Amino acid sequence: MVAAVLVHPDRKEVIPLAIEPIVKQDGETKNDCERNATRRLLKRIKQQHPKLKLIITEDGIASNAPHIADLQSYGYHYILGAKPGDHAHLYDAVIKAGDNDRLHCFTTKHLDAKGSSSGTQWAKRL
Length: 126
Fold this sequence. Notes:
Layout: E1 2-6, E2 15-20, H1 34-48, E3 55-58, H2 65-73, E4 77-80, H3 88-99, E5 103-109, E6 117-123
Parallel strand pairs: 3-4
Antiparallel strand pairs: 1-2, 5-6
């Protein structure tokens, strides 16, 4: 099952928006996959809520060209996770963006006993 929910950083509530099962589709010989279910889910959300402005956030499995093309075709903004071992080409592009002063950084400190911190880097339209 693939699920879409509405979240807001200033709210504790999570509102379910839509779900899409990962099942063999009628007439198909191959099993379905998360990518196909997500494609159907995005299409249905756009049909049911054509004026809803969304920022889609997903993990590294969504960081691929076909999925990004789907997101862009519906006019959605997106934040997709990526790890260096899984997305070497993307990381090379981010390094190049840093060399061209197009890389933005945001660091947060956590208030735990260790005083740890984490950082996020992003580049607009690599």
